[in-house]
Amino acid sequence: MSLMVIGTGFGRTGTDSMREALTMLGFGPCHHMSEVMAHAEQKRLWRALAKGGAPDWAQLFAGYKSCVDWRSAHYWRELIGVYPQARVILTWRSPEIWWESFEKTILPVIAGSTDQESLGIALVSKQVFGGRPQDRGHAIAVYQANVEAVLEAVPAERLLVHKLGDGWAPLCAHLGVPVPDAPYPSRNTTQEFRTVLSLN
Predict the structure, then answer these.
(1) What is the domain-level CATH number for residue 101?
(2) Is 137 exposed, middle or buried (0-12, 13-18, 19+ CB in 10 A)?
(3) Sign, Cα dihedral of 195, 15, 30, 25
């Protein structure tokens, strides 16, 4: 099994809803931060990569048909080359609204963690945000730079920019599947996220 869909949007852009949507459309299992939190072997593999290990993408994504959230958002440049047939999705919300959600959810978890090998610190804080996730201007600039890089690097015919609220129609058209007879999922709100204790 190889990846059929690669997500390039940062966490807090609707990635958990997209994970559920892709699963409903037959592109699951979908790799998401929650998978790493739930499985010890996933945690071990991704922590080793974050520490500078050589990536074995086939092993890291073994058993998954799609991926979204911080892993694929950070490594998308490599992934779109390794999986040239995969469709690409950029989940998006305005930078200011993204920051408001990030500040209330992921940032407190990072700030409260004492485990320097946790992916919240090793990957999100240090690698994605250069050790400055709490700096609003810097974090928003990093977010915008990622969006611009995806738009520039990924051919338009391969890429879908999926904004919060877009629902099924553009996603299903992009993936070439029928629209399901079910509401588009809405998952992992700020309140729901606050029940999560760590980003391990």
Answers:
(1) 3.40.50.300
(2) exposed
(3) positive
Which residue range(s) make up the domain with 65? Answer: 5-193
Domain membership of residue 199 (yes or no) is no
Can you tell me which residue has the tokens 């994504």? 61
Look up residue 54 and give its DSSP letter: P
Is the residue at 60 inside a domain?
yes
Backbone angles phi, psi at 67, to 5 degrees: -150, 140
pLDDT per residue, tens digit, the chain (200 aa), is: 799 999 999 999 999 999 999 999 999 999 998 888 889 999 999 999 999 999 999 999 999 999 999 999 999 999 999 999 999 999 999 999 999 999 999 999 999 988 899 999 999 999 999 999 999 999 999 999 999 999 999 999 999 999 999 999 999 999 999 999 999 998 655 454 444 444 44
User: Residue 198 falls within a domain, yes or no?
Assistant: no
Question: Could you give the number of structural domains in the chain?
Answer: 1
Query: Which tokens is 157 given?
Result: 């015919």
CA distances from 51 to 76, 79, 175 (A): 18, 18, 34
* Bridge partners, residue 92, by sequence: 163
